[in-house]
Amino acid sequence: MEHELSWHQRLLSYLYPVKIAKAATQQNAVLELYYHRGQYQLATYDALYSDGSRYRPLRLAIRYLHKRKAIGDSVLVLGTGLGSVVHILYGFGYSPTYTLVEADATILQWAIDTLPKAVATEAIPIHEDAEQYMATNSQQYSLVVVDIFNSRVVPAFVTSQVFLLSCKAALADGGVLVLNYIVINKDAWQAARHCIETTFSKCEILEDGMNRIVIATA
Hints:
alpha/beta, 2 domains
């Protein structure tokens, strides 16, 4: 999709976000794809889901793992968005294999269309609900990234013991889980944090405004 942008759109994108596409899907009544300052953005009516390699929560997580040389060769992304984590890892010079799981087919297609070409041809896109996918998954990965929201709310299943255990089982030896959470309700966050910390042997939690970025190992 990037090659279809005109020089005029690219220039204007440094002044304001340029709308590239709009859609309504079963999962999202409003979906908008923008190009802003050299990055693709995915927006709903009240939330920004992806901001290319500028997406702060996942950028913080990848920088943390990069410093500790803790990024391996296979990545599972649950809640793909526009694949910000892929853009971020690509910017850091990593080229792992990717499995991209996304419940919204339009978002998944936009993600594939806007990934770097070298990555898009190697990525495995899976149009499926993450909860259902993990219920039957038998593969293991060096990095599992969970970035799932309904608007700004993390669905309850994401921090349930069943789902967290399935994510733990999907970690290869030395593998790492990254989970992005927005604190809307402090009590809900404390309950979620307790479940995460009792499921994984080691947890580090990075704070960025309302976001809590969990970095956990089995």
